């Protein structure tokens, strides 16, 4: 979650005249080039602004902790990243509870049922899937704002996916019948 590379943005190469104009634009507006966006940019509440350039085009300015980004982050993208941060905290919480329940087996009752049926692990997988889908939606929203750039998912999203796949290992260990393990093994083969 501390990564600032959840979404990567590559600008197309420009000729020298366009490059000088864009550099002058970024210098005058005191903004940074938008090359990557991550959860680190959204630890504090987002501040947005906007202005019109000399050609009459409207620009959206996003102010984060350390930088100002132009035409990159919209309020919709900020809201999606706030949801991503919340889901990552919920995943960490359910993973911790699952770990504690595997380390210290609970007495009989509802907690034993949760452990036996691997409810926390299933929740982790579903929440991880939700994080991936929301990250894809954020990527599409940024690509809509910057149609001339190549927008892709970065390492931060893949780290969350790998963390979710670790839950598969505990599912395999909790299965009692060989038939219960087959879907897990098939999914592990597909994911690798």
Automatic annotation (TrEMBL):
InterPro entries: TMEM127_TM
Classification via Pfam families: TMEM127
Keywords: Membrane, Transmembrane, Transmembrane helix
Domain Transmembrane protein 127 transmembrane region, chain residue ranges per copy: 72-168
Transmembrane regions: 80-104, 125-145, 151-168
Name of the molecule in the record: Transmembrane protein 127 transmembrane region domain-containing protein
Origin species: Heligmosomoides polygyrus (Parasitic roundworm)
